[in-house]
Design brief:
The protein is 39% helix and 24% strand. With 254 residues, it is α/β, with parallel strands linked by helices. It has two domains: 57 residues, Orthogonal Bundle (Arc Repressor Mutant, subunit A), CATH 1.10.10.10; 182 residues, 3-Layer(aba) Sandwich (Rossmann fold). The strands form four sheets. The chain has a seven-stranded parallel beta sheet, with helices on both faces. Strand 10 and strand 11 form a beta hairpin. Keywords: Repressor, Transcription, Transcription regulation. This is Transcriptional regulator, DeoR family.
């Protein structure tokens, strides 16, 4: 099958499923893995797709990816980042975990921590941590987003302001080249800003694909983060800024 035939087929599958994987495309199109990797790289160079580990996704622009799709994307590296994050969370502390698939991965890695108080506006995080009998889970309340189990709004931020957390762990939708942390939902931005203000130590967990995405609402700068967990080295210019801000960068890959 020629490249002129493969490209439209690859894009059709990406539009239908939200992503494509190298192995599935190679089997579906009857070509080698190397051929598909080359095709995806060329489509990414043309702006038709965005490369991710093991495949590619449609360019995000200013539209968020469906939650179930976000959960599957880059799952192995999210687990590696979550392990690194959980390793920096001590026993016997109070933490906040916000909305996101990466924070859900952190929750899973906290199942064997002792004497934790976890406050969350993420129903999925709360459900995960019910499996840890030595963890007190407090759910903030607020307006429930059925798409991802997130709670937002004035009730959420009001609840958060009643606490002072040892550690606040947040995710985001995008990170700008200047280090600004971005999201799509203004209410979620307000929640994240409140978490950062109410936390003695702040952590951001976000994979490298967030540097390829754009979102309109600013949460904060990486300068407000103590430890940034990601899965690939950041651009040298941003790494230099992080060093100036005393923002530690932790890189973990599967």
């Amino acid at each position: 099958m020629s490249q002129t035939i493969r490209f439209p087929e690859i894009l059709d599958i990406a539009r239908r499923d939200g992503k494509v994987t190298v192995e599935h495309l190679a089997e579906h199109l009857g070509v080698t893995l190397q051929t598909i990797r080359r095709d995806l790289s060329e489509l990414a160079d043309a702006g038709k797709l965005e490369r991710v580990h093991g495949g590619a996704v449609l360019p995000s622009g200013t539209v968020n990816i469906a939650y179930e799709e976000r959960r599957r994307l880059n799952a192995d590296n999210k687990t590696a980042m979550a392990k690194a994050c959980a390793a920096m969370i001590p026993q016997d502390c109070a933490i906040f975990l916000n909305i996101g698939t990466s924070t859900e991965a952190v929750a899973t890695e906290l199942l064997h921590h002792r004497n934790l108080m976890v406050v969350t506006n993420n129903m999925n995080v709360a459900n995960i941590l019910t499996r840890n009998p030595d963890c007190e889970v407090i759910v903030t309340g607020g307006s429930l987003r059925q798409s991802d189990g997130g709670l937002t709004g004035d009730i959420t931020t009001s609840t958060i302001r009643q606490f002072k957390f040892d550690i606040g762990v947040i995710g985001c939708s995008a990170i700008d080249t200047d280090g600004d942390i971005l999201d799509f939902d203004l209410q979620e931005v307000g929640v994240s800003q409140t978490i950062l203000r109410q936390s003695r130590r702040t952590m951001l967990i976000s994979d490298h694909t967030k540097f390829k995405r754009k979102a309109p609402a600013r949460i904060e700068s990486l300068s407000a983060i103590d430890v940034f967990f990601t899965d690939a080295p950041v651009a040298p210019s941003l790494a230099k800024r992080c060093a100036q801000w005393d923002t530690q960068i932790s890189v973990s890959r599967a």
